[in-house]
Structures are given as structure tokens and as C-alpha cells.
Amino acid sequence: MAMDVVDYEVFGSEMQYVEVELDPGEAAVGEAGAMMYMQDGIQMDTVFGDGSQQSGGLFGKLLGAGKRLVTGEGLFTTIFHNEGTAKRRVAFAAPYPGKIIAINLAELGGTLICQKDAFLCAARGVSLGIAFQKKLGVGFFGGEGFVMQKLEGDGMAFVHAGGTLKAKTLAPGERIRVDTGCVVAFQPTVDFDIQYVGKIKSAIFGGEGLFFATLTGPGKVWLQSLPLSRLANRIVMSAPAAGGRSADQGSLLGAGVLGSILGGDDD
Amino acid sequence: MSVVAERALPAVAGDKSFAGRLFGPALAGTGVAAEACWRADGGLRVVANGRELLAAAVKVEASGFNAERVRLSWYDDAAAGEYAFFVESPEARAICGQNAPAAHAAKLRGALAAQARTDRRFRLGWGVIGAVVLLPFLLLAIFAFNADPLARWVVGHVSPEQEAVLGDMTLAQTRAQMTLRDRGPAVDAVRSIGEKLTAGSPHHYRWFVAERDELNAFAAPGGVVVVFSGLIRAAKTPEELAGVLAHEVAHAELRHSLQAMAKSLGLRALVSLALGDLAGGTVSDGIARLGELKYSRDAENEADREGLRRLLAAGIDPRGMVGMFETLARSEGGVLPDVGKEKGNAGDPASEKTDKAAAKDAEKAAEKKPVRVAPPAFLSTHPPTEERLASLRQLLATAPTGQAPLAIDWAAVKASLPQK
User: Fold this and answer.
1) Nearest C-alpha neighbor of B236 from the set B317, B304, B320, B319
2) Which one, of A22, A52, A49, A25, lies nearest residue A38 by Cα?
3) Which residues contact B275 (CB under 8 A, 6 or more apart)?
4) Mean pLDDT score of chain A, rounded to an integer?
5) Among B29, B30, B44, B36, which residue's Cα sits nearest to residue B13?
6) CA distance B75 to B59
7) With the C-alpha atoms ordered B186, B190, B193, B195, is the resulting torsion angle positive or negative?
8) Taking CB atoms and an 8 Å cut-off, how many pairs form between chains A and B?
9) Least-confidence region, from A149-153, B161-165, B287-291
10) At residue A137, does pLDDT exceed 70?
11) Closest to A219 (Cβ–Cβ): which among B23, B82, B121?
């Protein structure tokens, strides 16, 4: 599969969009609905499935589409193809506050595991697949569920996550403990596991839930500071219609109930 | 100690090398593509970025996402760091396994077993979850195939007293839908025939005549028998009425309506279990539909045979049963043509058509399980099929004849019904 090499530029600070430059004949695949604008000369083509297998036959297309449904994407992918003779640009916008990260899959050995829904756009040729989390404990308590996305190929892929993103390179054996839900993406050589917080007092009152996610190197990992669910939770909490009920972070007696009584409505 | 040498070399020679990705000190954090091969002394030789690394004490384990990869790692004193080589593709893993020194082969197998274990647990876990989700559907399937014996078993645990309570409920509901009369010449005629048919029954029977033109009669559990006045008008002799009564009494004695209710209730309970609708009302709803249940074809045949037996036991001429059924079959929409003429409006093609359509709709509704046919039309709940008539005639051929006619002044009974 020929990979298209794309140049790109990320704009904005907290609510970003990425502008991808396509040479004549080049193409990019975007998450349906993510396109923000495109220049003249770019043809938009919506395909059933993930757009990476242009000649996969009906069954292949159905399978690809089914996979996309499981990972929470739409049934269709949009391919943006530069039909002109000059370089053209197309922009994809992030759907919620956060950062867009550009990942060169070739540098990572061709595969990246990321949380479902994280995919924004990629050079044509990058395939989107499912990576099932097979460790039951991690699936239930790791914060990412059982279904993750697998990006495969040698091109550029753009992934989006909430808040500020931290890219961290772990040396062999180096381990980092992460709040569940904050893991965005990692190389498949990274061991993704969970660890009990250790003390029952911490588990109940610490506000971090019962488990940490642990990432053990070697490899590169990306963490987000603000998972969308947490942001949504806060918004719902402060919405007058919701009555200020909190369920933040799995803490049984956390900041929510007591906080709303003691702290007023300034959180 | 671990790393013996680090020299510039082109590549690992031979087909025994396997590809992978190397991580370690002074290498890119995201790893570099590398090739490795086992050495005779149990060490590992890795070539990455055109450089050769030699490792002596290699640790073998399953690692990475889902423990999908084989990780060969060693500590490098000179670089003061750990190196990790990941065998990625299945082909590379096969070569790695085939050529591994004896000391590592067992660990490699262990790594693969660990991976298989993760896989197995994953499948087992989802299997359990799937089973929990599918269990109600499984129960539903079992129920669907064994509904009759199950219903019979359940009904066997219902006492006649409990049945009478159900009868009272049905009676109360029927009274809300239609006028029931419990005295008068028509009721007396029904009672006198009915008591002959139900001699020795544990149930306390109550007989009613409803002011309705439909050709219908039904028996609710607990011995509540309701005959529609339309049926009495249509019956040419008291024996014909006796035939229908015998059939209905047989339904009650055989507890067909209870069984149908048990089936419908069980079905609904299971359906709500399977589909998650646990919001009450199941039981009350089931009682509400008690009078509207459809009997199965087997139940109808059984009631025919039992009714016939009861007619003979009571010394009533059983030919009335067939006569009445033929009348019913001919009457199509449930209103006899001659009755229609008498009334002057039912013969009107439009109303007959609507009657037919209603009967058809009722039949369609009856095909779907919990039925709502109010009030039940005899033709939709008791389809007088050719088979039924044929089997009845066959039974009659061997039945004794010469019964005395019923001592009822039939013309007076008919005349006592309100004229319309």
C-alpha cells in the first residue's frame, strides 16, 4: 500500500484544527464530520468502511464498516483527494477542547494503539482496526474499556484527545502510573495494566478510584490531562437543571456531594 | 559482562535471524527496527542501526499490549541500562522459537502459554457475559418448545377454589363489557342442560346469558359459562345449544383457559426478563386478557372429544353438536342470514362485510400470541375447520343413538329473548 506523505500544520491552542497539505494525487482520510474547510480542487469522496482497502470487495468493506461501528466511528469514511495540479489544503477540526497530536506511524514501527474515538484524520493508506483489550481487569477498570483502536501503516496519523497532551517515552522497564481514562495512545510494545491503589482509605476517599492504569516501557505513550467524560461530568454537574449531582472519578464520598454542600457552586 | 562487544557490522547472516524492534539506552525512544539471532552459547546477537549488540543473560517473557509480543531483554552494564528486543511478527516468532537454545525454549513456551492464557480468559469472560445476556433467550426457547407440559404442570397446582377466584374476576370484567342475565327461561334452559353435562364436577358452575347478537359462548375458569343470546337464536334445537355448551364445559373442565393463561404469563415473564421490561403489570395484565385467550387446535379437538363424551354421558343426542358447528361454519361473519333478515339490518352487505373484516382481524390478532379480541367471536377462537367436523362425524358414527329429546320448550325459550 502506497502511503501518502503529507505536510501539516496545527492551528489554535485549546480547540485546535489541523491543516493538511496534499500534493497533486495525494489523499487523506478523515473522520466523518471532522472536515472544517478545504480548498478548491480537493474532491471529497465518501466510502463505506475505512477507506484503506479500496479493492477489498464487498465483504472486506462490510467488515471494515462493522469494525468502525464497534470502535464508535461512523459507518462511512471520507476521503479527500487532491485532483488538481497544485498543492491544496484541507483542514480537520477537533470535536472538543484538547490537543491534536501528529504521529508518524513509520517511526513507531507501523502500529499504534489508541483509545476509541481518538482518530481524527490520516494519510491515505493508514488502516483503522480494532484492538481488543484482552486483559479482563484492564478492560473493566483500566478506563479505556475493551475496545481500542489500532492504527496501522507508515504514514501520518492525527489523533485528538482532551485537555493538554503529554507525550512520554518510557525506557525498557520504566513504569508510569496514570489515572484511569487518561491514556490516549501507546506503542504496542508498552504493557498496559492496572494496579490497585493500595489502601482502602485511598480507594474510597482519594478520588482516584480503585485502580491506576500502569504503562510499562519500552515505548512512547501519550496521556491526556482532561478526558472528555470528566469534562462532560463537570459541565453536567454545574448545569442548574442537573441539580448538582456528582459522580466524579469513582470516588464514593469525594468532592461531589460534600463539596456541593460545603463549597457552594464555585467548582 | 552482558554485552560482549558492540561493533559495526552489516547484518546478521543466515536465515535464522528474526526481525523485531529494539529499545534501549542511546536508541530512539520509540525503538528501532532490528534483527536478532540466537548464539550457540545461549546469548543473543542483535543488529540495529548497523551496529551489533551481543547479550549473554537474556530474559524471555511475554509483554506489550495484551502480552502479544515476545520480549527478550538484558541489562547492559556499560550503557547502564536495559535493552529490550520485541519479536513482532508471527513468522519472526516462529524462527525465534525454533532456533532458541534449550535454556530459553522453555521460557518461550511459557511466554506463549501466558499469551494463550490471556486469550482464553478473555474469551471465557465474554462467554460468561454472553451466557448471562443470552440466558433469558435460552429459557424462552426452552419454554417455547415445552410450553404445553409446563403449563399443564403449573395448572395442576391450582385448586378449584383459586380457579373460582379467577372466575369471579373474569365475571366482573365481563359484566363491565356486556349485560349478563342470570334468570329467565333462557338461563333456566342453559342451566338445565349445563347441569346435566357437569354432573359430578368439582367446580361450582354459574350460567349466564349475555345480550349479544354474536354467535358465541365461552367458559371462564372456575365454572363461569356465558352464552350469547345470538347463539340461542341461531340454535334450531336445544340439542344444538347442548353441543356448544358441552364443548365449552369441556374447555373449563380440562382447564384449557388456565393453561393458556399460564403459557401467556410465563411467556411474558420470560420476554420481559429477556428484553429488560421488568416494570410490573405482568400478572394483572395476564388476568385482564384471560377471557381473550385463544385455544390451540389440539385443545379444540380435545374439547370436542370431551364434550361429545359428556353429551353421551348425560344422555343428550350428540348430533346437535355437529349441527351447530355446521350452522356456525355457514354463518361466516357470526350473524345468520335469516336472523339478519329478521333484524333487518345485519343482512345489509356493508355491516356483514365489517363483521367479516372484524372476524378476520380477530383471527390475525389471535395468531400473534397475547390476543386482544373483545369480545371473542366464536369463529375466530373456535375455527370450525373441516378437519374438526370430519373427526367429529367420525366419532359420531360409532356413538349410540336413540337419546330422548331434551324436555325444553325451545320456541318459548327463543320467544323469551328480548325481541329486536
Assistant:
1) B320
2) A22
3) none
4) 81
5) B36
6) 9
7) negative
8) 85
9) B287-291
10) yes
11) B23
Q: Determine the average pLDDT of the residues in A135-156.
A: 86
Preferred mutation among A134, A215, A221 to probe B, highest tally of B CBs within 10 A: A134
**What was the pLDDT predicted at B342?**
34
The Cα B253–Cα B125 span in angstroms is: 51
**Does residue A107 surpass a pLDDT of 70?**
yes
Set out the domains of chain A in order of their start, with CATH numbers. 7-224 (3.60.160.10)
CATH 2.30.29 in chain B is located at 6-115
Amino acid sitting at position A133: Q
- For residue B271, how many other CB atoms are within 10 A of its CB? 18
- Residues from chain B that touch A129, judged by Cβ atoms under 8 A, are none
What local confidence, expressed as pLDDT, does residue A5 receive? 65
Flag if B66 and A134 touch (Cβ within 8 Å).
Answer: yes
With cut-offs at 50, 70 and 90, classify the pLDDT of residue B354: very low
For the stretch A18-54, what's the b/e string if a residue is b when 16 or more beta carbons lie within 10 angstroms of its beta carbon? Answer: bbbbbeeebbbbbbeebbeebbebbeeeebebbbbee
The Cα B381–Cα B373 span in angstroms is: 9
- The architecture (CATH level 2) of B6-115 comes to Roll (2.30)
Question: For position A220, what pLDDT does the model report?
Answer: 93
Cβ neighbours around A115 below 10 Å, total: 26
Residue B45's beta-bridge partner residues? B37, B54
Grid coordinates belonging to A129: 482496526
Q: What is the pTM of this model?
A: 0.62
Neighbour count for residue A254 (Cβ, 10 Å): 19
pLDDT band at B340 (very low <50, low <70, confident <90, very high): very low
Grid cell for residue B36: 536478532
In this predicted model, what pLDDT tens digit does every residue of B174-213 receive, in sequence order? 888 888 888 888 888 888 888 888 887 778 888 999 888 8
